[in-house]
Amino acid sequence: GTFGKVWLVSHKKTGTPYALKMLNKREIIGHHQVEGVIREKNIMSSIEHPFVVNLICTFQDDRSLYMLIELVQGGELFSVIHTETRDGVPNANARFYAACILESLSHLHHRHITYRDLKPENILIDSLGYCVLVDLGFAKIVMDKTYTLCGTPEYLAPEIILSKGHDKGVDYWAFGVLIYEMLVGRSPFYSYGTDQVSLFKRIVQVKYAFPPGGLGNEVA
């Protein structure tokens, strides 16, 4: 990323593998991200759920901050949805993945945490096939509303684009976009060559359509 790298490391005695996120202090200060990094660390420390990546511990030296994180080795949900031979997943798989993701979001929302960057690249598949939410860099405790423009364009809710203030509802919007992508194999609002202004207009106007013939009776 912008501020550092993630290394694959292992415990010297047990051999247990972990992900070590190393953040450059100078880069963090230069990009005015000190508050954001502290917020991410505090939020991750407060969460314990099988479908949200686990922060083991943190430490630092003169140059860097370090976050030792549970290793999830199954790859991104994005790579499951989009392969060389197809886009989208079977309805039963989509229901299972959606249930996992909803569980993780519910856990965060119960603690007044809005995730704000739900997308298939931020969901990893663990060794048992369950979804694990990772990268809480945009997550924030929101008691009322917040006004920061953040997230990934294809998954932004209208209220973020319109700067009306937003809360956990934006996570459910992105969740709906993700379900559509799993079932249909593409974004409901973006198509190849769409510029960002046109994309935002479609989102704000809620302009999307299901494929001819619908999605089948299995979707519920």
From TrEMBL:
GO molecular function: ATP binding; cAMP-dependent protein kinase activity
Matches recorded under Pfam families: Pkinase (PF00069)
Domain Protein kinase: 1-220
Keyword Cell membrane belongs to the record: no
Keywords: ATP-binding, Kinase, Nucleotide-binding, Serine/threonine-protein kinase, Transferase
Top-rank taxon: Eukaryota
InterPro entries noted in UniProt: Kinase-like_dom_sf, Prot_kinase_dom, Ser/Thr_kinase_AS
GO cellular component term, pick one: cAMP-dependent protein kinase complex
Name the record gives this protein: Protein kinase domain-containing protein
